What does this fold into?
Amino acid sequence: MSNLISREVELGTMTQTGTITYTGNEVVGKTITATMKDTNNDKGSWKWYVSDTDCGANGGTVAPLAESTEWKQLASGYSPTVDSTTSTLTLSEDMWKHYIKAEFVPNNEIGYGGESIQGVDQQYVRKIYNESIKIESSTKDGNGAAAAYSGTKITATIENWSEEALTGRLKAYINENTPVELSGATISGETLTVTLSSLSAQDGKNVYTELAVPNNSNLYVDESLKPITSGTKYKSDRIPYRYGIPISTADDLEKFMLAESPFTNRSTDVYYIVTNNINMSKKNQISYSSIPFSGTLDGDYHTIVGTKNPFFVELGGTESKHASIKNFVFYNAEVNVIQTGVDYMSSGSVISNIGYLTDFENMMLVDSNLSSAWDTGYLIGQARGGLKVKNVCTAGGTLSTNPEKLGPSLGGLFGYITNGMSASLNTIENVFSLNTKKTATKKLGNSGGLFGGTNSQTSIKNTYVATSLYTNANTYGPFMGTATNVTLSNVFYDNSIITGSFNSSLKGTGMPTSNIIGDNLIEKFGTADWVYSDGLYPRLKWSENHPLAIMYTTTRGAFTSVDGKTTNTEMFNGDISGTIKVPEELQKNSYSYKSSNESVLKVTDGGTIIPVGTGNATITITYTEPDETIGGSASNTYDFTVKQTVKALASVSVSGTTNPGQKLTATASGASTYQWYKRKSGSTQRVAVPGAISSTYTL
It folds into this structure.
């Protein structure tokens, strides 16, 4: 038998050793890690603290001592919390500008004691600086890009605003080479606004805003977590400024035509600029001023719709400084000029009754009905010498003259060109005229695709016409009737459209449509001012993407066969034997389609054309301007002959719910095969869904 004797002995505690170091980025949203170095124990608890006071306005206040009472313990946001040589803290927004402290408290239950280990991170918490400038203009140019004019309101908004005051930091300027601060700018919160005045010396220069980093930039880092350099400045996007007296509304344009204030100046030095698209369709015919206009009218590529009278009675500058009309799109004009006491003053056009010593550049005039009692043309009724026309196109519409006596002329650009006001050379370069009807109530003196005739020295270069002629005239031809002192260079007419004989002494070169479309003229016209696409007539580069330019230059050769039963040659000639489709460029929501005979050609809303009966039919494609502030529409036509029909379903219906995962069911009387399609947003173009060839389709 033995006795077990027990005895408790209290062992001494071991003192915790080590120091705390920090790694990571002291930046809001990032993490820092506290690590114990040279430690003899990792059993214990981690605690984290944030300083009660911050580093001051510019980071000049140092961190509190580790032993001070100026620390607040954090309840969360870090891990691990126990038994580790490291602990990581995620820095939150409320820690910005404050200091951080970590503490490791040893677990004395396992024999470690002494004071805890504390370490202060001497770098205060900073924030990522990512302010940026969004600059906007209350006005746009005719292409939809931001543009600035006199009276334009510029708004600059600071995105990701730091809430540091912007006064003195955000400023608006014009002219990057020699910056001029814009006066009158105001700042409210994160936004600067300024309304531009008339700045004649700054035409063509850029408006922009500049933002300086806050004065306390040392409280921030950039997005790469690098320090922000004091005084760093950032520029916004640029908005081009165009000088000129602004014409912004239909009322403005009416006053301009009347030469009323503030549009009374008609001298060679005056510069007017159109700053918005303008719809004149609600205005009555205006008794426009008879004061000659000698200055510049710049449309900045805006569109004018629905005018009912020419802009001017007389348009012309001087030999040393021409008048100038440029950068415009006109359509749906309805002009009728009646007989006055002087024949040439009864001429009609969109721009002026008579004109001389004037430059026309970058203009598109389409789908207008122009009538007068004398010479009629899209630009000027009677031109009187010294004209320069470059990068201009006309298309569609009707030009007519209803004279009280014989003798007037009709032409796509001008009715007639005389040398009555100037013997200077007239130059016409990079011009085309398409599909414009010409009529008259009496026999004309002259008729042509560009102008009725001329006795003024004229040069025509890089030009084509594909438009109807009015042949009840003393002289007529593809470009002009009577021609005196006219030279031609790379001038072509479409003899698939302009057929027969002409009595003009100067005809240009006739070629079939197939030899004009696509890139067939690229070696003649070059690429500086022209663009080329398969199945389309050449387009002028400045307006290549305009819906009207695309529609009017599109030929049947751009249509495509759906079922492969119509060859490219047959398509081009208008002979179809299967289902076809309008060109992809015209498959947009702003285009609509109509058949002249649904018993021969059926056409769907998406532009699919189905030959259901033999015979002839015309497909009309209409562009309707989606911007209601502009309004207006224009159409082009395409004639087809059906050689072979296909069976069209009498009716097709689709049932089901158009939600993801739901099933759609097609019901089509007489259908044996199916194909489901999807449509691109903003377009009528349909794309076949691969494998979707049954009567049902699951979205």
User: Anything to note?
Assistant: Residues 96 and 125 are 5 Å apart (CA to CA).
